[in-house]
Amino acid sequence: MSRLTDAHIEELESEGFFIVPDFISGDQLTTLQAAQRRTLPTYEQVKEAPPQDQAGDSLFKCFPYEDIELYQATMDEETIAFARKWLKTDDIHMRVGCLIARYPGHTGGGTGFDDSGLHIDNGNNSLLPESEELREFGQVTFWVHLEDVAIDQAPLRLIPKKHGNDMTKAVPLVCEGGTMCIFTNYTWHSASDYIRGDGQRYTWGFAF
Asked: Which end of the chain has fewer beta carbons closer than 10 Å to its terminal beta carbon, N or C?
């Protein structure tokens, strides 16, 4: 049974995003967690000199990676089928792939127009024609947390479509490891601050 259904297509259309807990689990989750940690260091490994990507105290690494498991998981049949259905074509291609780590001290930001870093991805990492109505001229992003994310670990914040860009209505992506969030290049979203004094928040993302 597919974990991504027509109901999710409708939810993505109406809300601009949806969240699937336990999309990755079991041995696959354990394997991908290990691959992620081989690619991105833990806070314990870098706390004496944290990297300063993306507003500081974070690390951003794009494909290619040495671990084949990350490529194999990106080419998941369900996510590809969902992307084809959403984009209304079989002729899709991978837009981007990245791993991100946020560490204590990281502040919200990114590429937005206010202090929260609120933004959409059309224009900053998409050169597609601008059209919110014609989704076949867009991109769909798969944002995966392979490890738990708490409210004080810089969760991504997403705003349901009906609220426009009202940050007071943002939904923080607090979740358990294995959770996938799917959104589009017109979904308003923002980074947030890493408040906790230890640990890290990992993200693995790709888009079609």
From this structure: N
